[in-house]
Amino acid sequence: MVEDLDVVIIGGGQAGLSVSYYLTQHGCNHLILEKDRIGASWRKRWDSFHLVTPNWMLRLPGYPYSGENPDGFLTREEVTKYLDSYAKRYKLKIRQSQVIGVRWNEDTRTYVVDTPEKTYRVKNVVVAAGAFHKNKFPADGARVDKSITQLHSSEYRGPNQIRPGNILVVGAGQSGCHIAKELNEAGRNVYLSVGSSGRLPRRYRGKDTMWWASRLGLYDQPSEHLRLLQAKFNNSPYVSGRNLGEDIHLRQYALDGITLLGRLRTIQGTTVKLQPDLLESLASADDFAESFRSGVDKYIELTGSNYPEDHTRVNDERLKGATIHVSTEFDTNAAGITTIIWATGYMPDFQWIDIPVFSQEGHPMHKRGVTKAPGLYFIGLPCLHKAKSPLLYGVGEDAAYISDHLLSRLNSISL
User: Fold this and answer.
1) Is the pTM value of this prediction over 0.85?
2) Which of 87, 136, 194, 221 is packed most tightly, with the most Cβ within 10 A?
3) From CA 271, how far away is CA 287, in angstroms rounded?
4) Cα(86)–Cα(157) distance, rounded to whole angstroms?
5) What does the DSSP 8-state code read for residue 96?
6) Which domain of life is it from (predicted)?
7) What are 144-154's pLDDT values in tens digits?
8) Which residues does residue 114 pair with via DSSP β-bridges, in sequence order?
């Protein structure tokens, strides 16, 4: 069975819903195809998950946050409820179906979108499926002793899920830091392998860090600048939305009983070898936080604004005085480690799109979401256009641009 449409949007997260919002406003004949449920990626987060961005940053087009706690942080369930209510409010057309292929038909001059149930023949395709499709595991995982349980951070739900014994968490980005802290608070012995992520203070000089980032224009930084930062730090800086918002300070983690380790070099059986870079990584994270605070101070000075002084630097200096032992090798049996959690990120997988618009690394090539293939668009990708592009805070801006481009194309080919 074949169904003809002007547009198919692939993915029912915040990006796909935002594009659908604009197309609905213009009466465009379109459909969202979502293989799971609305906001499926949010539903798979761990049980105690909170957003790290405050509620006032919930700004899907036509649906800004209007609750009583703008400075709070939504839970996993509250995020999915927000997305569900958005789709219902604007009567967005969503069909649960997995797209298994996208190709171009030169004879009909249309895209062919294949699903198990039917085929769609469309003039435009908006891929809103994100960029985190496959769990990224290092090759060392295959050489770990078979007695050790391994799971990816995406599979983690809570401490009760983890078997008795000590735990090695590899990766200290947002997920790794949160998981390590939760396990430590549950009374588990945790080893945390630290990389090059920066850290941010949760609040500074009377305001949330995200408020300052917005005021300083950091969310509007262009994608080219962001790629340079990512090359340097490898991950987004970490901060927490738990307990009404709190700092993540790895030096404090060490005082709380978490064993900090340098970056993983190799694992062979029960032998773990580490880079001797732990202190350098901690210093780099401290430098990131200090650079951010200095930027805020400079802004306050230049604008003549009046904000209270802050004492987070005093705490930082106190924590720098704590002794941190640097190991370069240890044995998992001797350490009592029975579980490894790989908080090592994700990789894209667009092999189901048979259109030559990808780099050698498998990333879509585009300019602000518009590819060289007429009528094929991407949205919701990191660094799509600005820092805020994939966020609930900023995806609407990209959705407006792509929708305008798409509608103009529809008008031109109908003439």
Assistant:
1) yes
2) 194
3) 32
4) 26
5) E
6) Bacteria
7) 999 999 999 99
8) 101, 119
